[in-house]
Specification:
By secondary structure, the chain is α/β, with parallel strands linked by helices. The protein has 20 helices and 10 strands. It starts with 13 loop residues before the first strand and ends in an 11-residue tail after the last helix.
Length: about 475
C-alpha cells in the first residue's frame, strides 16, 4: 500500500496511471526505529517521506491540536488505531511517525505474506521489550486481508497494550475487521489529498535538498497536469514528478540550472496526454452534463468516453457515482428498476474498494444505464405531486387513514372504517386514499418503454379497483 511519500509495504499496488508494484517483503517482521536517514539513490517518494508532523501534507482533520492522531504522534496517546483511506494518503508514514514518538520501536507486517506465526513472533518480541520499558508499534498493512484467525491473534496483545497496533486498510473496516478488534481501536479515516496539498508537496519536492534541490522549475500547465495525474495520491504525484524531471534534466544536458519542466515533457515522460478538464470550472460541468445526456440518449460509447475523461482527469469518483444514482431514477425509473440497484451498488463499491478498482464498477453502471430503456415518468410524477402541494392542494387526510393508536381516537372518528387490504384475496380493494380534493388525480403516467409497458396495464387495473370503477370485475393478475 502506498504511503504518503514512502515506499510500499508488501503491496503490489496497481494505482491506475503508474504501476508502482514493489516486491513482496519476507514474512518476517522488520524493525525500524522511527524515521530513517535519506538515501539519495532512493526514489523521490522515499526521500521526501515526512520526518516530522509538520512535514505531513493533508489530513488536518486528524492532526489538529488535541486530535487523537496528533496525540499518538507526539507520544501522549496510547490507543491502537485503524487507518482507513485510499492509497497515497499517508498511512505508512503516520505509522512511522507514531513509532518515532518517545523512542517506540517499530515492527511492520504485510497481511499479504505474514501468518499467525509471524504475528505471535512480533507479540512475543514486544512482550520482552515491554519488560525493558520499551513500547512496540506494530504496523499491519492491508489488515483487511488478514483472516479472522489472524486478527483474533492480535486481540489480547492489543487489549493489554503489549503492542500499539496501527493497522492500515483501503476497505471499510466495519466490513473487513472483526468486531472485537474494531472495538479496541480508534478508526480514523484518511482523505485523498486535495489539489492544493499535491501542489504544495510537488513544490517542496522541487526545492528541498532531499528532493530535486531546485534543479528544475515547473511551468504552470505542467504543474496542473501533474496534480491531475496524481488524483489525490502523493506517491503517484512524486513518481510522476521524478520521471518528468529526469527527462527534462537529461534533455538539458549541461545547460544552466534550473531547467524548465514544461507540459510536453511531463506528457511524454509519463505517457499520458493532458486532458482539458477543470474540476472547479466550466469543463467540470460541461463533461458531466455530456456524460449524463449521453446516457439519457442511450449512446453507451459516448458515455464511456466522458467517463474516461473524468477518471483520467482525477474527478472525484463519488461525484460520478452520485450522478449515476440520480440518473437511474430520473431518466430510467420503472422502465428498468434494476438500474437503480446497479448505480447504488457502484456508489457503494467506490466507498468500499476505492480507486482505481472502483472505476470498473462505475463503467459497469454506465453501460447498464446507457443501454437500459428510458422513462422520465418518475420525476414527472413527483413533480406533479409537489406542484399540487405547493399550490395548496393538500386537503385533509381521510379520517379512516388517520392514526388510531391512542385513547380517544375512535371518538374522533380516526381509523374508523379502515379496510385492511390483506384481507382481500388480491391484496387490494376499493377505498379512498387521497384527500377529497385529489380523488381521481393521476400523477404517475407510465410509458410504454421497458418494464413500464407491463406496469401501465397493472396501474390501470389498480386504479379501477381502488377507486371503485372496476366495471368488468375479475381478479388482479
Amino acid at each position: 500500500m502506498s504511503d504518503l511519500f514512502g515506499s510500499d509495504v508488501g503491496e503490489d499496488e496497481s494505482a491506475g496511471l503508474f504501476e508502482t508494484a514493489q516486491p513482496d517483503e519476507a514474512a518476517a517482521p522488520r524493525s525500524v526505529p522511527g524515521p530513517v536517514s535519506v538515501d539519495h539513490h532512493a526514489p523521490l517518494a522515499v526521500r521526501m517521506r515526512p520526518r516530522t508532523l509538520g512535514e505531513v501534507v493533508g489530513q488536518q482533520h486528524l492532526l489538529g491540536p488535541g486530535a487523537p492522531l496528533r496525540r499518538l504522534v507526539e507520544g501522549s496517546g496510547a490507543a491502537s488505531v485503524l487507518l482507513y483511506g485510499p492509497p497515497g494518503t499517508g498511512k505508512t508514514t503516520l505509522a512511522s511517525l507514531i513509532s518515532g514518538a518517545t523512542g517506540r520501536r517499530f515492527e511492520a507486517l504485510s497481511a499479504l505474506s505474514a501468518g499467525v506465526k509471524e504475528v505471535r513472533g512480533v507479540i512475543e518480541l514486544a512482550r520482552r521489550r515491554l519488560l525493558a520499558g520499551e513500547q512496540t508499534v506494530l504496523f499491519i498493512d492491508e489488515v483487511h486481508r488478514f483472516s479472522k484467525t489472524q486478527q483474533d491473534a492480535l486481540l489480547a496483545a492489543v487489549e493489554n497494550r503489549i503492542v500499539l497496533l496501527v493497522a492500515a486498510t483501503t476497505e471499510n473496516p466495519s466490513f473487513s475487521v472483526v468486531s472485537p478488534l474494531l472495538s479496541r481501536s480508534l478508526v480514523l479515516q484518511l482523505q485523498s489529498l486535495t489539489a492544493d496539498d499535491i501542489e504544495n508537496l510537488l513544490e517542496r519536492a522541487r526545492t528541498d535538498e532531499r528532493g530535486l534541490g531546485g534543479e528544475i522549475e515547473i511551468a504552470g500547465d505542467a504543474m496542473d497536469h501533474l496534480v491531475r495525474l496524481a488524483a489525490g495520491d502523493a506517491r503517484r504525484a512524486l513518481t510522476a514528478l521524478e520521471a518528468a524531471a529526469g527527462a527534462a534534466l537529461d534533455q538539458a544536458g549541461d545547460a544552466d540550472r534550473p531547467v524548465l519542466l514544461d507540459l510536453a515533457t511531463v506528457e511524454a515522460s509519463v505517457d499520458k496526454a493532458a486532458v482539458r478538464y477543470d474540476r472547479d470550472g466550466d469543463q467540470h460541468y460541461d463533461v458531466i452534463s455530456a456524460f449524463i445526456k449521453s446516457i439519457r440518449g442511450s449512446d453507451v460509447d459516448a458515455a464511456l468516453h466522458y467517463l474516461a475523461r473524468m477518471l483520467t482527469a482525477g474527478e472525484d469518483p463519488r461525484f460520478i457515482a452520485r450522478r449515476l444514482v440520480v440518473h437511474a431514477s430520473e431518466d430510467i425509473g420503472m422502465a428498468d428498476p434494476t438500474a437503480l440497484q446497479t448505480a447504488t451498488a457502484a456508489a457503494q463499491a467506490v466507498q468500499l474498494i476505492g480507486m482505481p478498482e472502483a472505476r470498473l464498477a462505475l463503467a459497469q453502471a454506465t453501460i447498464h444505464l446507457a443501454t437500459a430503456p428510458k422513462s422520465g415518468a418518475v420525476i414527472a410524477a413527483l413533480g406533479a405531486a409537489m406542484a399540487d402541494v405547493a399550490a395548496g392542494n393538500a386537503g385533509l387526510v381521510p379520517p379512516h387513514l388517520r392514526d388510531g393508536h391512542y385513547a380517544g381516537a375512535a371518538k374522533l372518528g380516526n381509523a374508523v372504517g379502515y379496510r385492511y387490504p390483506h384481507d382481500h384475496p388480491d391484496g387490494v380493494l376499493a377505498q379512498q386514499y387521497p384527500p377529497d380534493e385529489l380523488v381521481g388525480v393521476d400523477y404517475y403516467q407510465p410509458t410504454t418503454h421497458g418494464g413500464e409497458r407491463d406496469i401501465a396495464g397493472r396501474v390501470d387495473k389498480l386504479r379501477a379497483i381502488v377507486r371503485g370503477t372496476n366495471r368488468q370485475g375479475g381478479r388482479l393478475s
